[in-house]
Every structure is written in structure tokens, then in C-alpha cells.
């Protein structure tokens, strides 16, 4: 097995309805076909990128066309990832999901649900959590609008991409809510908008609205619309309600259709700002934007809120995912006191 082997039996017809009567000429052509299927099935760009990466690696690892491979080759590849590369369980699961998609939806040769590969061990890690004082100190070292963004992560329990994908219409000032559309697992949910952030967020949107109006007079550009909404409501992409709450200063090409559109902030912009603020605040923990979400959940549980309420706010499908925060509370269990303190 040689992962650097990129050769294929060319001029042979791939199996499956997608490739009937189609000659396979290159790996890139095949991956382009895979991408087309992914877009038809409305996979997110992140999922698309991950799946294409592991499909490419799988094919190059064996040096064979995928239609002539099957369960044995899939098991060998997944075992290699776990045993030789020591990837995390979540990484191996992404690779497995990519191959399941390849055989089920592209080649239409579904794999059996049970694969006898060596599985990577899933490690249960306690999340990094800041104290309330550390959160306050961290926010004080963040410049605008990073401080507002980080405050929403902590005050509303948002994931970073959920924050960046917030649109103007998703903010309900009257009810004190944020609506998260197509969150993790393609699920929608409501979470709270802290009272202390209503006015700062309102002022931010007023300034953003003014800049957006000025930019539209120079060059009228749309914003990305999910699903088929761009075709169903072609003018909605130019309306203020659909604009990003935290828009990027420059437009970008949409990789889906190649058209220039208004984009939201990049992830690494806030990530770098949080790292710098952590050093400035002299907080000696491995802090990232996601740490603020962990802190949101832990502090709510410490304040006595029901774990199922916290689960709903976080958008966790399984209560066991939320229960991990009970292990990092200041007073885990039933208020147990150390014998040294007695």
C-alpha cells in the first residue's frame, strides 16, 4: 500500500449510475463528481472539504479506483489511520463517514454498517473552563468588536461558527433571544440574548447597517443564501435582514457558484484575538473561543439551573454530552467537602 501512488487504470468505466458510460480520466475528475453529489445533497462546505480530503487519501492509499475496492480496503485504511497515524476517534469517524458517503451516494454500492477495523480510542477530556473573574478579565483585554463577539459566546453559549453565521433577522431584541439556524447536526434552536448585551449589540448593528448602505451604493453585492432560497427569493440576498451580524470588511468569491458575495468574519480572526487577550490577561490556561461556551454551561450549572435547560440552550442532542460539565463545576456532586476542610 502506497499512499503516494496516484495511478489508476484509466479508460475504464466506473460502476454505479453516476458513472455509467463515463470514462474515468483522472482523480480530480472523479472528486469533482463527488463534489457535485455532495452539493446536490446540500452538505456544508466544511463537511464537503473533509469528505473530499479523506476520499482522496483513501484512493491514493490503495492506488486503485474506488469501484473495484470494498469493505477490505476500507477496513485497512481506517486501521492505518488509528494504528499508524494515531488519529483521534472523531477524526477516524469523519474518514469513515466520508467513505460511507462515497459508496452509498456516489457509487451506489452501500457498505455494510459493521466494519471490522481497528477503531481509534475515544478519550473523554474535561473541557477547559474559566472562572467568572477570568472571563471578565479576558473580555476586558479584547478590543471592539472582539469583546462583543466573545461576550456573545459566553453570554449565549454559541459555537464560534454559530456566532459568525448570525444574521440580522436572527436577533430578537424584544424577546431577548438569538435564533440559531442550521447549527451542529443541521438543527435550529433558540438561546438567550443577555440583557447586558442588548444595547451594545443594537449599536453595533446600527453602525454595521450604515457601512452596509454605503458599500451597497458603491457595489451592490448579495450575501450567501442557504439552500434554494437564492432561487426562490432572489432579492432577499440584497436585504438588510439577511446580512451577517459580523460581516467581513471585504467581499469574497462563493466557492459554490464562483460569484462575489458579502462574507462574514473568518474564524481565525477571533481565535487569534482571544489568544492574544489570554496572554495579556495572564490567564495560564489553554483558552480558545470555545472555552467561553464551556464556561457558559459550567456557570449555569453552578448557579443551579437544570441540566436539561442547559442542554437545550447548548443544542446538545445527548444529555451525556452536557453532563461532562458537572465534572468541572466548582462544587461537583452534592456539595461534597474535602476532609481537609472539616
How would you describe what is shown here?
The chain is mainly alpha-helical and 342 residues long. The strands form two sheets. It has a three-stranded antiparallel sheet. The protein has a two-stranded antiparallel sheet with strand order 4-5. The chain is globular, with a radius of gyration of 24 Å. It starts with 26 loop residues before the first helix and ends in a 7-residue tail after the last helix. About 4% of the residues have low confidence.
Largest sheet features = 3 strands, antiparallel
Strand order of the largest sheet: 1-2-3
Head-to-tail CA distance between termini: 63 Å
The outline comes out as globular
Helices and strands: which structural class? mainly alpha
> What is the number of helical segments per DSSP (H or I, 4+ residues)?
14
Average of the residue pLDDT scores: 86
N-to-C series of helices and strands = HHHHHHHEEEHHEEHHHHH
Strand content bin: under 5%
User: Taking Cα atoms only, what radius of gyration do you get, to the nearest Å?
Assistant: 24 Å
Number of strands: 5
Q: What's the helical proportion of residues?
A: 40-55%
Which stretches are poorly predicted, pLDDT < 50 over at least 5 residues?
Answer: 9-22
